[in-house]
Predict the 3D structure of the following.
Amino acid sequence: MTPASSSEFDQGIALRPDGEAGWYRGELGEGWQIGGGINGGFLLAAAANALRQELPQHPDPLSISGYYLSASTPGPYTVRTEVVRKGNSLSNATAVLYQQDEHGQQVERLRVLASYTDLAALDAEVGTAAEPPAMPPREQCIGAEHAPPQFVEQAALLRRFDLRLDPACVGWALGQPSGNGRIQGWFRLADDREPDPLALLLVADALPPVTFDLGRPGWAPTIELTVHLRALPAAGWLRVSHATRNLAGGYFEEDCEIWDEAGRLVAQSRQLARTPRAK
Amino acid sequence: MTPASSSEFDQGIALRPDGEAGWYRGELGEGWQIGGGINGGFLLAAAANALRQELPQHPDPLSISGYYLSASTPGPYTVRTEVVRKGNSLSNATAVLYQQDEHGQQVERLRVLASYTDLAALDAEVGTAAEPPAMPPREQCIGAEHAPPQFVEQAALLRRFDLRLDPACVGWALGQPSGNGRIQGWFRLADDREPDPLALLLVADALPPVTFDLGRPGWAPTIELTVHLRALPAAGWLRVSHATRNLAGGYFEEDCEIWDEAGRLVAQSRQLARTPRAK
């Protein structure tokens, strides 16, 4: 169902029809694990790929919301899709991603609700006041090769990425978090697979939790992640920033912006996640 | 199903069971119209009220996403709810709000996906870096009584509110929009009904479209609205700010913050809406 491709990402989200109309199956690879589960952005991309199969006229998510119901694990999964409405410029659809638990019970991992469109057909007007995040050139940024080994061990995911973090946002790796609640850097898939709307869903959840920069080194389970795809990304490197302002009640929001090499704000996302316990 | 109340809002979102388990019906009042349709925040609150009936242990939305499928009109509606998961601290559920079209066909107006919790039981920790919006005291702000009549005509909704806009954000009413993409003000329901989580869903979409401040006076249909409820609001006035940064491709995001009288950031929301045509 997915264009033949040698890219790790395309192979990772590849699907097969699963008999009944609207059902698909795939396999979550160990390489997309983070802190013991499968990365939430990757899972959203897998579900979004199933929806794309059902909406040939509107292949791109414009807005997509994922609610995470249980921790997904490497292994097979199935996706059930439902097309709710096919419109002229937008279509709406839902998806449910399931895995079998250790008792053979089908368990929901992720529920998705989305509006799909054809991003290539959007109005060309751009009247943005947003500025790309200011960060040093890539050669002055910090790659995963400098990350603490115990961190990389928990994040097989990092080997899929060429991620170069702004040195101003990596104090946490040395036990000196800035306290600003901001992590940003340059991003590219390690195998140089170029960005597209599905890859941007992965990128929206690809950086370390912004709570690392607040001295909370634990993993932060995502409750909800909504991504707005605002333009087709140009080929090349992406600039990604994650920031939080309101850590309260045991939860925090993480706002993400993704800028492409042409200097266009191509995606905006916000997630609500559970705050890791303070050390 | 809704506590007996003389408040316009509680009466507006009041529901009755509709036979089958999980189904409810209600009536959309003309008083909640804006630009010809029913206000999107009000519609989300009506659906959220149906979900609340199904989740007595977790009565409050923590995160709720609404996708708007067609313009709703005054008159009867039905809501179908589905509880997806009941957990210890969170439950997940979906809702679909329907109306009959002029041919008697059942049409979907709104699809909702949400995580519910008990906001009163949240961890008390607050470590926020967010600051309430700076705005003048209420007596220096501008009430709807000063709004252009042709504007109020299209917005019966405004009569339900005691809304006092920051004078710095109302230049658009005089044909002199600031161009900042920001509208903020003080909010209270006109009948003094105190804020609660369902009312905050209405408030998240209650101000004029932020595009007014960019010289785009038309109505801006909401594609998707996600609200994060971060705390139970204190009684009294709310401070509400709407801002946009990225108007592109025929769409714009509208970020909303709602602060309560105790100075707590009680809700954060973002919507993706269609940009009104330039004059």
The CA atoms of residues 98 and 104 of chain A lie 12 Å apart.
